[in-house]
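Run log, item B.
One chain of 246 residues. Sequence copied directly from the ordering sheet:
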Amino acid sequence: MPRTLPVEIAVQDAAGVRVALAAGAARVELCQALGLGGLTPSAGLIESAVDAAGVAAVADFVHVLVRPRGGGFVYDADELDTIVRDIRAAAAAGADGVVVGALTDAGELDLEAVHRFVDAAGELDVTVHRAVDASADPFGSVAALRDLGVRRVLTSGGAPDCRAGLETLARMAADSGPLEIMAGGGVRIDDIAALAGAGADAVHLSARGTATRGGASGPGGGVDGFDMTDAALVAAAVEAAGLVRR
């Protein structure tokens, strides 16, 4: 039977939140600096996103990425403490969920850290991000999350993108129990049907374009232009997800 596959859009600003709402996305992963893989958004951006979802009367929409820096996912004590504080701040700002993850020095999923994150999140939904794909055993990492109070995991099946990881994604979906498997990593519109066929519970993409308004960044460095959420890509993804069969 036809079913709608929920679509999550990674957005970096209030305009992106409104685009995702208008197109019928299931939720957003709210972040900044997608060029670095995404970092924790500001308090003001979280509040703006929560307000926009409230005006649109859309529940469970704002899920906040909590990642203190770029680079890998092995964090020291100060960074772990910052993540916990930012989770609590996101909850206080009205977020519906958080997106987190951490690895140990040995490259294994840091289950102790994830447990701390879940505790700090309280009633919020918890998604573990693609740190699992950077772990030594992505399949085992996903399996280890089933009993930790995590709602879903964002994964490419341990591959550079979802197309290459499709077989592993299917194994993860078959073995995940109550844990939702959200396919993300280089997702194209044409991939959505195959990801649904592999058993994914949702798909995640950034649907980015480039804006050039605002002028040059000046002689102090930086790049001209910035990422923006492409409304046409978001609409196409939501439409494709509404046509999948399983």
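Observations after the first pass:
- Residues 76 and 104 are 10 Å apart (CA to CA).
- Strands lie at 7-11, 27-30, 62-65, 97-100, 125-128, 152-155, 180-184, 202-205, 208-211, 226-229.
Flagged for discussion on Thursday.
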